[in-house]
């Protein structure tokens, strides 16, 4: 049955215009998510508005919580209520990453009653994150935002009346500059990798592929030879990898954004190396993944370890997997002079504005070059004889002072 969202959380309208709610009420003993759907209020009357459905949804959800509001601690609230709900709302990979951020607040506030968390407590937590915790400001910004999000949910399910953390200042992300390798630095790295061994050849091809193609790490890890057209030099980037272990992974049939699904042209140099790499993989029993040495997908920790090792050997700045993507952007813009639309397409951005947001500083400053090209680019010779008949004060000829209007002669000279 078709349904449309309303402006109220968990409230929808069906194809007949009837309002109903659907709420998450936890997990069963097997970890399966449980939802409750309702079309009538406590008096068994159909909902007359989305707001009525929302109010009933909150009441029912409170019943299912079945907890003593005054006694529940922040840690118990997070463990029993927020985290299960959050896990149901997001991708598994997102949950695994962000749950560590929520753990910071759980460790700091612990058994403190949820209802007794004050503005002062929030301020202490914020100060600890910015000082003694030892985190970067950009990471602190994410962690404190996650904490605020948890208290927003406590308000939503009527465990507290207001989110006191909103009365403290947010933590600005600061100006974090992502490290990347210039073409010269990347050439130094490649010159330190021997392709004599199959294992190092895998490292060489992984670095080169990411640097030349600019795909996201999860997109590159998900690539199979079935995605690569070696005949016509094209690669389809339509998937991303959710990695748990070598034998436990999932290829998701989508990318970060809709624009992330793209087909890119492979340059002839890289194409030839890919053809040779596929043959060498087959000789070593690898047939499936493009960037693999054991027919299993790579993972971020392995890539990070490789990048660290060869950065130290080549004596260049250490970067992470995302840094390879930034390196590709720099290569396209600074070295190849690619235009903004081409860069946006190859990186899989949803619009050129996203590209400019992150990479505007990489585009060359053409101010001097443009000014130089203006010289002699057009005819700027004035007419020898006026083609307009002027009258009044406008009828002035020559450069003699007597030819100037009196109103100008009487003005004082301004220095």
Structural commentary:
Helices cover 45% and strands 10% of the residues. The chain is α+β, with helices and mostly antiparallel strands and 415 residues long. It folds into 3 domains: 3-65, no CATH class; 74-167, DNA polymerase, domain 1, CATH 1.10.150; 183-362, Orthogonal Bundle (hpI Integrase, Chain A). The strands form 3 sheets. It has a 4-stranded antiparallel β-sheet with strand order 1-2-3-4. A 3-stranded antiparallel β-sheet has the order 5-6-9, with no helix packed on it. It has a two-stranded antiparallel sheet with strand order 7-8. Strand 5 (228-229) and strand 6 form a beta hairpin. The longest helix has 20 residues, at 137-156. It is globular, with a radius of gyration of 31 Å. The N and C termini lie far apart (79 Å). The mean pLDDT is 85.
